[in-house]
UniProtKB/TrEMBL annotation:
Record domain 2Fe-2S ferredoxin-type: where: 1-77
Highest taxon listed in the record's lineage: Bacteria
Keyword annotations of the record: 2Fe-2S, Iron, Iron-sulfur, Metal-binding, Oxidoreductase
Official protein name in the record: 2Fe-2S iron-sulfur cluster binding domain-containing protein
Organism (species): Pseudoduganella guangdongensis
GO function terms (MF aspect): 2 iron, 2 sulfur cluster binding; metal ion binding; oxidoreductase activity
InterPro entries: 2Fe-2S-bd, 2Fe-2S-bd_dom_sf, 2Fe-2S_ferredoxin-like_sf, 2Fe-2S_ferredoxin-type, 2Fe2S_fd_BS, Beta-grasp_dom_sf, Diverse_Oxidoreductases
Record-linked SUPFAM superfamilies: 2Fe-2S ferredoxin-like, CO dehydrogenase ISP C-domain like
PANTHER family from the UniProt entry: BLR6218 PROTEIN, OXIDOREDUCTASE WITH IRON-SULFUR SUBUNIT
Origin organism lineage: Bacteria, Pseudomonadati, Pseudomonadota, Betaproteobacteria, Burkholderiales
Amino acid sequence: MIYKLHINGAARSADVEGDTPLLWVLRDTLGLTGTKYGCGAGACGACTVHIDGQVVRSCVMPVSAVGQGKVRTIESLSPDRSHALQKAWIAEQVPQCGYCQSGMLMAAAALLKSHPKPSDAQIDAAMTNLCRCGTYPRVRRAIRRAAGMKLEDAA
């Protein structure tokens, strides 16, 4: 079946089965490889995208469930690393192996949209993505930096 999707501000079509996970439509059918496969069970968050501004684990979201939702992937943040979160991620040296980073960035972007100056508790509640390198303190600092906060502002 052909699904008409709204991806990163553009209309796209995908001829796939309805139960195909959105992750595979993005990566294999549409060539948007920034979104990563991690666990395949929606637990790790490497595949995090936004649908209508909400954080979604794309590995467990069938393409048929997307409907008219507007999908944003990591590619939509910025083509040249100029997004405040990308700059903060680099400044705070968040990436180690880097595999979880696209999902982390997308979760952080949703957080800052809903809470422009998040508290530590809000950061902890929103950032449920797993990082095997354990860069969580750096993630918190990067989110604060992107929000224009000082370390002591979020406590």
